[in-house]
């Protein structure tokens, strides 16, 4: 058996989601493996909740008494089970970034550090934990995804933990660390000779024929809800308050839109006070369809062919692009893009000031943060949160040639002394150069 065809059991006592709802026309559907409004308008489906039921079940205290993972917010997630797949995903550090703030002329800057998310060191572990828990409930035994890299890592790892069969699809030209970091879990890996948008198109066809649970296709409504936890955690970690401004990377635009939904839900059930939060998005210049639409004042996205080192966010035809655009505009935020050279500088800046090694997507976010700060588009007193979504050890080739080298010495004190002297001379020269 691969797919449950009948509707799921009536929701258990604690289930708080009521079904699926079209984001465009409002048509409702049973909570099955379905992502498109096929009866009416072909818009995307989203999970709908009974917020009165959530309000009755949840307080700050019940959340704090829950697991130290995304599952402390289970009432806001689209699963029925009391035993979700919990591999310790979520509750990553929210770091006060004082040295980076000073460099950028800001005062209240925080880094939400999903470079150390469990188990595969990217924010994708959040969405996959939710999608695979739901996949299991719906009776799927084989799970799959169309990935830009991190999603394949997460799907393969969490499927292994849950004992699900797994077949993932990636563009063939991904970074070595992303490919190895998938293969180690022993799924079937299809390296497609094409870009992500072609991989995604192929997967839509496979989803129609195979009856597999594709986390970001037929399970997408459940999957994308996992990103709300990036909003919930920041609110809780700030002492049950919303920030003034967030900066996050945009690939499909889903993560960005769901952080917004997470904040709105916390307001709706009374866990935080309502206040305006500005949403600013980050893209790589070599794949910036959402940023281009923002700058040109368009409310539609023109797809592009990606060409950037920021492969994890290189989606040329972003499914949730128009929703991200809308959120940036209505919250008085902005969307900006940066060059590959600026992305590398962003990776180095975060590492040197805060001790966090992020991948290219995080470099994009930091470079955009810097650009906005320099342009006066971030008020220095605003509580600003920059979302770091992935780990630099997975994209080492991006910084090769742009960082220093070790000083090779003999195992002798005088060899060390000579090298130390040389290093200091070099540092002094570099320092003088920065002064001219
Ligand atoms: C997938 C991904 C994103 C963006 O995800 P969307 O929800 O598609 O916008 C950002 N950062 C990293 C590291 C990712 O892997
Ligand atoms: Zn519809």
Q: In this structure, how is the largest beta sheet organized?
A: 6 strands, mixed
Give a list of the ligands. pyridoxal-5'-phosphate, zinc ion
Instruction: Report the radius of gyration as a whole number of Å.
Output: 22 Å
State the secondary-structure class: alpha/beta
Number of helices: 15
Q: Helix fraction?
A: 25-40%
Task: Give the low-confidence spans.
Answer: 1-13
Mean pLDDT: 95
Strand order of the largest sheet: 4-5-13-10-11-12
Total strand segments: 13
In whole angstroms, the N-to-C terminal distance is: 70 Å
Describe this structure in words.
With 436 residues, this protein is of the alpha/beta class. It has helices at residues 51-57, 60-64, 98-104, 124-137, 150-162, 176-183, 196-210, 220-225, 228-237, 254-268, 289-295, 321-330, 340-354, 360-374, 413-435; strands at 17-22, 28-29, 45-49, 94-96, 108-113, 142-146, 165-171, 188-192, 213-214, 245-249, 278-284, 335-338, 383-388. It has a six-stranded mixed β-sheet with strand order 4-5-13-10-11-12, with helices on both faces. Strand 7, helix 6 (176-183) and strand 8 form a beta-alpha-beta unit. Helix 3 (98-104) packs across helix 13 (340-354) and helix 4 (124-137) crosses helix 5. The N and C termini lie far apart (70 Å). Bound molecules: pyridoxal-5'-phosphate (PLP) and zinc ion (ZN). Residues 122-124, 148, 150, 249-256, 312-313, 359, 361, 389-390 line the site of pyridoxal-5'-phosphate.
Briefly summarize what is shown.
The chain is α/β, with parallel strands linked by helices and 436 residues long.
């Amino acid at each position: 058996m691969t797919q449950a065809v009948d509707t799921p059991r009536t929701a258990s006592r604690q289930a708080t989601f009521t079904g699926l709802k079209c984001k465009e026309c409002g048509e409702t559907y049973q909570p099955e493996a379905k992502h498109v409004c096929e009866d009416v308008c072909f818009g995307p489906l989203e999970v709908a909740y009974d917020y009165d039921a959530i309000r009755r079940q949840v307080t700050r205290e019940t959340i704090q008494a829950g697991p130290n993972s995304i599952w402390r917010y289970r009432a806001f997630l689209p699963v029925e089970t009391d035993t979700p797949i919990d591999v310790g995903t979520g509750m990553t550090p929210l770091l006060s970034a004082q040295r980076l703030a000073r460099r950028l002329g800001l005062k209240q800057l925080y880094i939400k550090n999903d470079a150390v998310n469990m188990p595969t060191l990217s924010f994708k572990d959040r969405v996959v934990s939710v999608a695979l828990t739901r996949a299991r409930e719906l009776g799927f035994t084989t799970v799959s995804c169309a990935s830009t890299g991190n999603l394949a890592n997460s799907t393969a790892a969490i499927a292994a933990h849950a004992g699900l069969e797994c077949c993932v699809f990636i563009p063939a030209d991904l970074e070595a660390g992303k490919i190895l970091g998938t293969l180690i879990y022993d799924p079937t890996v299809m390296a497609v000779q094409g870009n992500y948008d072609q991989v995604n198109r192929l997967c839509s066809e496979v989803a129609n024929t195979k009856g597999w649970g594709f986390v970001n296709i037929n399970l997408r409504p459940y999957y994308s809800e996992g990103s709300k936890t990036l909003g919930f955690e920041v609110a809780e970690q700030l002492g049950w308050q919303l920030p003034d401004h967030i900066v996050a990377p945009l690939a499909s635009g889903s993560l960005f839109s769901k952080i917004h939904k997470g904040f709105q839900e916390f307001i709706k059930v009374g866990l935080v006070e309502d206040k305006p939060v500005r949403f600013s998005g980050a893209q790589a210049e070599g794949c910036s369809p959402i940023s281009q639409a923002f700058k040109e004042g368009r409310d539609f996205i023109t797809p592009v062919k990606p060409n950037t080192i920021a492969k994890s966010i290189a989606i040329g035809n972003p499914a949730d692009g128009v929703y991200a655009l809308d959120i940036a505009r209505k919250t008085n935020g902005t969307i900006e893009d940066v060059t590959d050279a600026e992305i590398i500088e962003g990776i180095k800046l975060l590492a040197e000031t805060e001790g966090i090694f992020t991948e290219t997507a995080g470099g994009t976010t930091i470079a955009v943060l810097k650009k906005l700060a320099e342009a006066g588009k971030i008020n220095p007193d605003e509580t600003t949160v920059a979302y770091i979504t992935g780990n630099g050890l997975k994209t080492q080739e991006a910084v090769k040639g742009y960082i220093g080298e070790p000083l090779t010495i003999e195992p002798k004190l005088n060899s060390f002394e000579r090298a130390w002297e040389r290093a200091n001379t070099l540092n002094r020269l570099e320092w003088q150069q920065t002064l001219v």
